[in-house]
Amino acid sequence: MNNKNITIRDYLYEAPGPKTKRYITIGTVLSLICVAWLIYVIIRLFYENGQLDAKYWSIFTRATTWRFFGKGLLGTLEVSLAAMLVTFSLGMIMMIGRINRNKVISTIATVFIELSRGIPTLLFIYFFFLAVPQFGLKLPAFWKITLPVAISAAGVTAETLRSGVNAVPKGQREAAISLGMRDHTVFLKIIFPQAFRIVIPGLISELVIVLKDTTFAYVVSYADLMQNARVMISNYDALLSVYLVVAVIYILINYGLNKLSVYLANRRKRLQAG
Amino acid sequence: MSISELLSQFGDKYLLALITTYKLTICSFGLALIIGVIITVMRISPITPLKVVADLYVQIFRNIPGASLLIVLVYALPYLNIVLSYYTCVLTATTLIPSAFCSEYLMSGMNTISPGQIEASRSIGMTFMQTIRNVVLPQAIRSSVLPLTNLMVSTMLTTAIASQVPLNPMELTGIVSYINTHAVGGITAFVISAFLYCGTAVIIGQVGNLIDRKVRILR
Fold first, then answer.
1. How confident is the model at residue A154 (pLDDT cuts 50, 70, 90)?
2. Which end of chain B is more exposed for a tag (fewer CB within 10 A), N or C?
3. What is the pLDDT of residues A90-125, one digit of tens each?
4. Which chain B residue lies closest to A28 (C-alpha atoms)?
5. Range of the domain at B157
6. Cα torsion angle, A211, A213, A214, A218, sign
7. In what helix (H) or strand (E) does residue A8 lie, and over which residues does it extend?
């Protein structure tokens, strides 16, 4: 298939002439020098402060290190997936409330969506960490991080789901109603299955946000990747290298998820274009 | 504790916290816009090393968790003999992350421009910079109003990570944990901060909608 996604990068320039080619070559060389210099400066900075010493990096050659990271990563993934499930359920409820024809219900749902979208995750986390125990409710650390992260992502998820429902052609609903289906049957059997497929890429992007927010798990001392990194640092006295490696792990996971989301969105577009 | 009691005890601190959050948000957002534009120009330039570096920059900062970035800035950089104040660290973190998203939004704003327009501007003899200035940028900026509004809200929400370092004066999230550990503020302290955050978010959203309606390109 030839309708790959062309971006502005592909058509912004005409084929360069000899003069422009020369400019581009000069620019490439100059910028390469700049980049090389930048890398050199960073490496020198590490070297001069002794951060390239083997003792800081040799821990990453041990299997136990990675097993410990793996355990933390498992904790991160558990929280993320649980939070994603809760988010999805809450988002569904909010979305169904928002598209309800009853003005009162729809207003209430809109208020909840705005609240969830306009309040930082950390405030929710502190709420579950500091305020909820004051009511005598003792939650395990797992839920102290999962619930706030889920609540703070629910509003955006509701809006994502709503955009999916709106993207289903109107005729589908009309056809189903003229066949004699009831309102909720139309939604469950006709609208939602199509809407869900449309919003899968959006939901994956939402998972990235959830995963990022779970890094605050150390606030409630839940053993996720970040928390395990802190334990590791106090054991090995290798702060910089451990935090950098953990950051890279997070970046790679999120990068992969984003790529997957884009791939699914593009595949959908291709399939629709036929 | 009732709202009036709480406000009489911590009222001035709350005002200071609100101002700190606003200041952080506006500074970060402004800087993020500037850096975002520079990064975007690098990404669409024909010079490969610049493209690669800018793409890498965007991928790093749109995928790194805010907590992770802040921790690296605050606790890891001193090992490289770079000691920044807490405020600078927070400002850097809340600038770098939105700047990457800003560039992403500008890129997708530019991708809405059809190739025909670029070809047309070329065929009437516009230079490259003229095409960028008169055709690409106006449309890209206009169709980026709504994403940028959301970016401003999410920048504000990102500034909550400042509560993870001892910032003085505190911002809206930090003050809540401060009140809850120093007094029995209970749920009221949360409600006030939540209301201030959410109110600001709604106002930003409304202003963004207003601007968008004014400048939107009807296609």
1. very high
2. C
3. 999 999 999 988 999 999 999 999 999 999 999 999
4. B47
5. 3-215
6. positive
7. helix A8-11
- Cβ pair A143, A125 in contact under 8 A: no
First to last CA, chain A: 9
Decide if pLDDT at A3 tops 60: no
Question: What is the mean predicted confidence (pLDDT) over B66-85?
Answer: 91
Residue recorded with tokens 């909720």? A184
pLDDT at residue A237 above 50? Answer: yes
pLDDT mean over A12-18:
82
Residue A145 burial (C-beta neighbours within 10 Å; 0-12, 13-18, 19+): buried
* Total domains present in chain B: 1
Surface of A (77-106) touching B: CB under 8 A: none
| A7-11, B28-32, B103-107, B167-171: which is most confident | B28-32
- For B16-37, write each residue's pLDDT tens digit: 999 999 999 999 999 999 999 9
In CATH, what number is assigned to the domain containing residue B148?
1.10.3720.10
pLDDT at B185: 61
Which are the contacts of A129, defined by CB distance < 8 A and separation ≥ 6?
A144, A219, A220
Query: Nearest C-alpha of chain A: how many angstroms from B23?
Result: 17
* Burial class of residue B129, CB neighbours in 10 A (0-12, 13-18, 19+): exposed
Give the list of residues 6+ apart from residue B6 with CB closer than 8 angstroms, or none: B179, B185, B188, B189, B192
Residue B157 has its nearest CB partner, among A34, A51, A120, at: A120
Question: B160-194 burial, b for 16+ CB within 10 Å, e for fewer?
Answer: bbbbbbebeebbbbbbbbbbbeeeebbbbbbebbb
How many C-beta atoms surround the C-beta of residue A146 within 10 A? 28
* Cβ atoms of B76 and A46 closer than 8 Å: no
B157–A115 C-beta distance less than 8 A: no
Amino acid identity, position A144: K
